[in-house]
Design a protein that fits this description.
It is built from four helices and no strands. It has helices spanning 3-18, 39-53, 59-64, 68-78. The longest helix has 16 residues, at 3-18.
Length: 80
């Protein structure tokens, strides 16, 4: 999965799960500060990523995710 595909997948999930405005979702967006996610939302997002990729996200990987770009990197690392 390339970066654009990963971004589009995450964007679709953020819109569906958290009703975030599509215009606010950019690769540079901070998940908490810019998109308003909290720690529970983060867990929900990690569960969705595990479902979509079929790969487990470790606590260490989860802790490193702060931005959309970090999330894209995570998905690419799970698919490689």
């Amino acid at each position: 999965m390339d970066r654009a595909e990963a971004f589009n997948m995450i964007k679709a999930d953020l819109i569906e799960l958290f009703e975030i405005d599509e215009a606010d979702i950019t690769p540079e967006a901070d998940l908490m500060e810019d998109l308003g996610l909290d720690s529970i939302d983060g867990v929900d997002m990690m569960v969705r990523i595990q479902e979509r990729t079929g790969q487990k996200v470790s606590p260490e990987q989860f802790e490193e995710v702060r931005t959309m770009s970090n999330l894209i990197d995570l998905i690419q690392s799970l698919n490689s």
